[in-house]
Amino acid sequence: MSRDAAMVRLSERLESAHRVTVVTGAGVSAASGVPTFRGAGGLWRNYRAEDLATLAAFDRDPRLVWEWYAWRRELVRAARPNRAHEVLAAWSRRFPRFRLITQNVDGLHERAGTENVIRFHGSLWEVSCRDDCGRVPRRWPDERTFEDLPPRCSGCEGFLRPAVIWFGEPIDPEVLAAATEALDCDVCLAVGTSAVVYPAAGLVTGAGALGAFTAEINPESTPASGAVDAAIAGPAEAVLDELDRLLGPP
Ligand code: OAD
């Protein structure tokens, strides 16, 4: 199918859709200047995400892991949502039942005003006690720029950690339940994700298996490209803008 034909097919499906679920990854924030994990610019001080985003890495060197998160917090704090975030925010009000499942921890979807965001991998802006000491909530918002790293838990004097899901950790059961429920939809769209990190990578094909029309937007092909009904090659900020214009006014 040509790109134009895929765009028309997807926009027709969206026009008649009531329940739309979008699964996003780091590529959605690329145009805001937030580096993706894989591909050019994905390394931080020569470390891959897999080297730092684990509890074992944190226990080995909590300061190093916090430095990575502190760097990302400041970078994202200075960033602004881009056109991709804006279109998805508008769609969250346009469709009667819209869910956005994001693997991103940057909070840019929320800052763009998106409703019904399911934060699959947690938030860069929340912290929890490394030891879950029980004297503090399980997780809570903390957007400060920490002077001393790693920050300490006020309950037990142990370390605080970013309240994000690390490799090897389970998805929060309530979040997983909400995401699974969102797969029952008319159109499911994967945007800006390399589709290699599970269980998130299985969401779009899961929606397809339940009968949804599935599509992908990504400048590169991914393991999901061959499995979706329409794979559209291009950057999210341009393709979503084009789709929004094809849809016309709500
Ligand atoms: P990745 O960094 O793996 O993939 C980013 C994807 O975005 C790639 O497929 C790029 O081709 C695509 N891309 C780049 N620029 C784009 C643009 N302007 N528009 C659309 N797509 C673009 O990011 P994720 O798939 O989100 O998890 O990674 C999944 C998880 O791996 C992350 O949530 C994180 C990471 O390690 C944890 O930390 C647990």
Describe the structure.
This protein has 250 residues and is α/β, with parallel strands linked by helices. Helix content is 34%, strand content 18%. The chain has helices at 3-15, 49-52, 55-60, 62-77, 83-94, 108-111, 173-182, 203-209, 236-247, and strands at 19-24, 97-102, 117-119, 122-129, 140-141, 160-164, 187-191, 213-218, 230-233. The protein has a six-stranded parallel β-sheet, sandwiched between helices. A three-stranded antiparallel β-sheet has the order 5-4-6, covered by helices on one side. Helix 1 crosses helix 9 (236-247) and helix 5 (83-94) packs parallel to helix 9 (236-247). The chain starts with a helix and ends with a helix. The model has no long low-confidence stretch (mean pLDDT 96). The structure holds 2'-O-acetyl adenosine-5-diphosphoribose. The site of 2'-O-acetyl adenosine-5-diphosphoribose (OAD) has 28 residues, from helix 9.
Quick summary:
With 250 residues, this protein is of the alpha/beta class. It has helices spanning 3-15, 49-52, 55-60, 62-77, 83-94, 108-111, 173-182, 203-209, 236-247, and strands spanning 19-24, 97-102, 117-119, 122-129, 140-141, 160-164, 187-191, 213-218, 230-233.
Helix-strand pattern? HEHHHHEHEEEEHEHEEH
* Strand order, largest beta sheet: 3-2-1-7-8-9
N-to-C CA distance? 27 Å
Average pLDDT value? 96
Instruction: Kindly provide the radius of gyration, computed on alpha-carbon positions and rounded to a whole number of angstroms.
Output: 18 Å
Low-pLDDT sequence parts: none
Total beta-strand segments: 9
The share of residues in extended strands comes to 15-25%
Q: Percent helix among the residues?
A: 25-40%
**Count of DSSP helices?**
9
Heterogens: 2'-O-acetyl adenosine-5-diphosphoribose
Described by the principal axes of the CA atoms, the overall outline is elongated
Task: Indicate the structural class.
Answer: alpha/beta
